[in-house]
Amino acid sequence: MQPGEHVIADYRATGLSLKTHPLRFLRPRLAAEGVLSCAEAVGKPAGARVQVAGLVLVRQRPGGGEVVFITLEDETGIGSIVVWASILETFRREVIGSSLLLVHGRVQRSAENVTHIIAEILENQSSALADIAEISTPQPRAPRHPRAERIIRPSRDFR
Amino acid sequence: MIRYAELQVASAFSFLRGASLANELATTAAALGIAAIGIADRNTVAGVVRLHAAAKDAGIPLIPSARLVFRDDTPDFLCYPQNRTAWGRLTRLLTLGKLRAKSGDTSTGANDAARCLLDYADLTEHSAGQVFLVIPPHILDNDFRAQVTQIRQDFPGTAYLAATRRHRADDAARLRALADFPLPMLATNDVLYHAPERRPLADVLTAIQLGMRVDQAGRALQQNAERHLKSPAEMLRLFRDHPEAVARTIEVTERCTFSLEELSYEYPDEPVPPGLTPDGHLTALTWTGAAERFPNGIATKTRDALHKELGVIKTLGYARYFLTVHNIIRYARGQKILCQGRGSAAKSVVCYCLGITAVNPAGIDLLFDRFISAERREPPDIDVDFEHERREEVIQYIYQRYGRHRAGIAATVVHYRPKSAIRDVGKAMGLSEDTTAALASQTWNTGAKLWPDDRLTEIGLDPTAAALRRTIELARELTGFPRHLSQHVGGFVLTKDRLDETLPIGNAAMVDRTFIEWDKDDIDTLGIMKIDILALGMLTCIRKAFSLIGIADLADIPRDDPATYAMLCRGDSIGVFQVESRAQINMLPRLRPQTFYDLVIEVAIVRPGPIQGDVVHPYLRRRQGLEPVSFPSPDPEHGPPDELQRVLGKTLGVPLFQEQAMRIAMEAARFTPEEANALRRSMATFRSMGTIYRFFDKMVNGMTARGYDRDFSERCFRQIEGFGTYGFPESHAASFALLVYASAWLKCHHPAAFACALLNSQPMGFYAPAQIVRNAREHGVNVRDVDVTASAWDSIIEPNATLRLGLRVISGFHQEWAEPILACRPRDFSGLVRLGLPRAALVALADADALRSIGLDRRAGLWLARGISDAPKLPLFAPLPITP
Predict the structure, then answer these.
(1) B301 falls in which pLDDT band (50, 70, 90)?
(2) Cβ neighbours of A18 in B, within 8 Å
(3) Domain that holds residue A110
(4) CATH, residue A148
C-alpha cells in the first residue's frame, strides 16, 4: 500500500492518522499551483494575496450573522479564514459543502498579531482527497451507509 | 350587552389540530369582546400556562381545562375544574391515563388517545368539583341518548351538552335534536383557529396528521372556514333559536373560578436531625462547610455575607430548597461524580460553603451581593452540572429519593423549525421529496429572508410556481408552532406533596424517565421550583484527567498559575472549556487574561449579546489603555456622581453582564425592582422576544431626565438589548471560568493526560480526535497508534507520559470486543483468531492498522481477517430442533 493510501485508510478507520497529514501528499501539486501552506501564509505581510488549502475543521457563524469563520488545517498548522457576507453569497455551496477547501484571499493582521485570511474566492477541492489514496483497494469494501464513506469526518459546525 | 364565553378552543398544543398560537387566540378573543375562553386540548394541559399568560396580558379570563378523549366508546368530554382540588383531580386523571400508555411516544399528534388511555370509569372517580361539557358525535342515535341519560345520572347538575353550528343543511334540525336531549345545551364554536385566514394551515395540519396530501384528504378537511373565534353578537345570531345555550356559557364561566395562580408551591421536606429546624440544619451545615473551605479562619467580610445570606434564606423560607440541592450534591460526591453549581447560585457564599459551587464569590468580589433579593420574591435558581456520562445516576437517585409522584423532569416544547416545517408542509402540498429536501437544505436565514426567490432559482426551482409559493408561505406560517413535547435536558421539578395534583406526569420515551407537561417557562410563570441537573462533557473530561494524575477535586488545583495564563494569552486553547472556539482563540491574545476575573470576562465577552451590543471593542480599547475609562454621571441634584462607577467599575465602564444591565436600569433610569425584573425576563426568555422595546422610552427618558446624555442613554439601551439574544450573567460566567481555568491548567501542565481524557470523553467540544491528537503532539506529547497488543478500550497513558490511543477510536469497534483482547493479548494472528471475536472485529482492527505489532500491516491484516469466517452460532453437535 502506498503511504497516501495508508493515511486515507487511517482517517477512514479512526478519524486520524499519526503517520502524516493527508495534505502532505498533495503538497507538490499545490506548491506547483502557487498554493501556500498555512504556516507560510501566516508568515506573509498584511495585505498580501495568498492561496491556502486545507481540511475544513470547523465552520462557525457567530450570532447567525454577517460572517462565517472557517478553520482549515494542513500539515503545517491551522489557517483562520474569514468569509464576509458578500463572498458568502457567491460561494455558499463551497462554504457548506467542502471538506478540502482552497481559499484565495488577503492576509489581515491585527495589532495583537492575530492573522486571518480574508477569503475572496473559494474552491471545493474535496475530490483531490480521493487522488491521495489513488483508490485501488484490493477488494471492494462492503457497502456502507454513504455517511460512513466519507474519508474525512464531517467538520463540527455552527456551534 | 350580549355575553358569551367560548369554552371550546383548541390551541396549537392540540398538535396538528389547533392552528393558532396562545397570544393570537387570547388577543383576538379579547378584541371580540368574548367574556372568557376555555382551552380544550386533547388529553393534555400542555398549552394551558401559555394561554394563561397570554390571556392575562390580553385581559381576558381563562378557564384551564382539557378535552378528554377515551379509549372506550365514551363521547369526548371537556372538563372544567371549579376549584383547586378539582384541578388536582383532573391532573391525576391525565397522569393515570398517561402512565398507562407504555412508551411515552409524544412524537405525533395523530393519536392522542393512544398516549393517554382513559375509560369512562376513571372519569366518574375524578368527577367531584368538575363541570363537564359532552361533545356529541355526528350521528345522534339511541346509543348516544342512552349515554347521555347515564351521564346525567352520574353527574347531576354538572354536565352540559355542546352544540356547534356546522353550517350544513341539517344544522337547525341538529340543534333542535340536541336541545331535546336531557342535558342543558351549551353553545360553542369548536374553535380551531383565531381567524378564518388560518383555515389553509388547519387543512395542511390535518393532512400532516393523516400522513396524506391535502388533495387526498377530502372529507377529512374542514368544509368551511367557520371554526374561528366569533363575537358574542355573531354567536347569538347563530343560536337565535336557542339563546339559553349562549347564556349557559356565562353560567359555566361563573361556576369555574379556578385560576392557575392558585397553584401554590411548596418545597419538599428534607430530613433534619432531631431538635433542628430546616433553617437550623442549614445554618449548621453552612458553618461546618465554611470551616472546611476556610481552614485558616473565615474573613470578616465572608462571615458577614454568610450571616446576611442565611438571614434572607430564613426570611423567605428557602432553607429546604438549599437542603435539597445540598443533598443531591452530597450524593454525587459520594459516588465520585464531579459536579459544579452554576446560575445565580455562584453568587452565594452559602452555596460555596455547602459545596454546591467551587468559586468563592467573596474571593473574586462578585459584583452583586444580592444572590436572592427579598423584593423580587422569586425562587432562587440553582443549576448543577454533572459529568455527562454519569448524570443518569444522579437522575435515578432523585426519582428514588423523592418518588415518582413528587419528582418529574420538565418538558421541552419542540417547535417547528424552518427545516421541519418545509418537510411536513411540502409533503402535504404534494411537492416531490427532492424538492422539499432541496428547500430544507436552504434554511440558513429566518423570517421573511427564508427561501428568497434568487435562492430558489439557484437550486433549480421556479419561484413563480403557485404551488411552491403557497408551500413556502404555509411553511413560514407553521414555523414556530409547537410540534410535540419532549423532555427537558435535566430540569427537575420537586414538590412537597403530590406533583400529579399540580400537573400531569407521563412516561418519557427513555426508560425509567417520567416527565411533566410543562416546560421551564411555564414553571417559571407559576413560580414552581426547578433544579437543573445538567450534563457537561468537560466535567467528565476533567474527572478523567484528575484520576490519571491523582487529583481529587477542582479545589485542589493550584490557583493563579502564571504558566496557565501565559498559555491562554498565546491563544493556545484547543480542548480548553469554552475558550476553544475560533472567536475565543482570537480574543485571548487581545484580552490577555492574567487573573481569574479576566477569565470571567473572557467567557462572557465572546457572546452574541456583547458582540451585537458593540461593547467588545470599547472594552478592549479601555483595557489596553487606548481610551480613557470614564463613567457618565447624573446631574448633581439627582444622585451621586459615581452611581455608574459602582456598577461598571470592574468592567471598565462597559456593561458586559446581565446583572449590570439591570443595575443600570435601576440606578440610572430609576426602574423599580419589579420593572428591572420585567426587563430581565424580556432579556432572558425566548417567549418574550421583542418585548424589550417596551422599555426603550422608559429607560432613555428615565436617564435623560436625570441628566444623562441622550446619546449615552440610547447606547446603554442598545447594549442591554444585545443581551436579549445571548448574554451571560456574571455568576454563570464565573462558574464556567473555573472550568476554563481547570482545563487550561491540565492542558498546560499535563498535556498527555488532558488529551487522553478528552479522547475518552468524546464526543464533546469543538474539535475532533484528529485535532486533539495533533495539538497534543505539537505540545510534545508522544502519541502511539492504536494496537492490538497495547491498547485498552480507552486511550491510556503509558510510561514517559506517552499517550496510547484506545480501541474506542476505531469506528465501528464495539466495547465488548475489547474485553477478550485485554484478557489475553494475542501474540500472532492465530492467537487473535482464538479469541473468538466476530469477523467484523478483526476486519475493523486490520482496517485501523492495529495489527502491526503482530507483524501484519493493514493490507496483510485485511487479507487474513477477511479470510476467516464467523464462528457458527449453534454448537456443532447441538440437537436439531424437531420439526413436525
Answers:
(1) confident
(2) 773, 783-785, 805
(3) 3-158
(4) 2.40.50.140
**Pairing between strand A115-124 and A100-109?**
antiparallel
Question: Tell me, what's the ipTM?
Answer: 0.80
CA distances from B285 to B289, B295, B306, B379 (A): 6, 15, 12, 21
Q: Which grid coordinates belong to B837?
A: 471475536
Q: Say whether the peptide bond before residue B763 is cis (omega within 30 degrees of 0).
A: yes
- Number of folded domains that form chain A: 1
Positions of E strands within chain A: 49-60, 67-74, 77-84, 100-109, 115-124
Nearest residue on chain A to B782, alpha-carbon basis: A18
CA distance readout (Å), B414 to B71, B479, B484, B530: 26, 11, 5, 19
Q: A16 — contact with chain B (CB < 8 Å)?
A: yes
Residue B755: which of B545, B550, B523 has the closest Cα?
B545
Nearest CA distance, A128 vs chain B (angstrom): 20
Distance in Å, alpha carbon of B460 to nearest chain A alpha carbon:
14
B364's grid cell: 473574586
Under 8 Å between Cβ of B797 and B803: yes
Residues of A in contact with B862 (CB under 8 A): 138-139
Is B336:B547 a contact under the CB 8 Å cutoff? Answer: no
User: In the numeric block, which cell numbers belong to residue B621?
Assistant: 480599547
For chain B, the distance separating the N- and C-terminal CA atoms, rounded to the nearest angstrom, is 83
Nearest to B611 among A13, A62, A159 (CB): A62
Would you list the DSSP string of B388-414? Answer: TTTHHHHHHHHHHHH-TTTEEEEEEEE
Picking from B658, B740, B666, the residue whose alpha carbon sits closest to that of residue B344 is B658
CA atoms within 13 A on the CB side of B159: 24
pLDDT band at A142 (very low <50, low <70, confident <90, very high): very low
Model pTM score: 0.79
Mean pLDDT value across residues B485-501: 86
Beta strands in B125-178 (DSSP E): 130-134, 159-163
DSSP class per residue in B71-97: SSSPPPEEEEESSHHHHHHHHHHHHHH
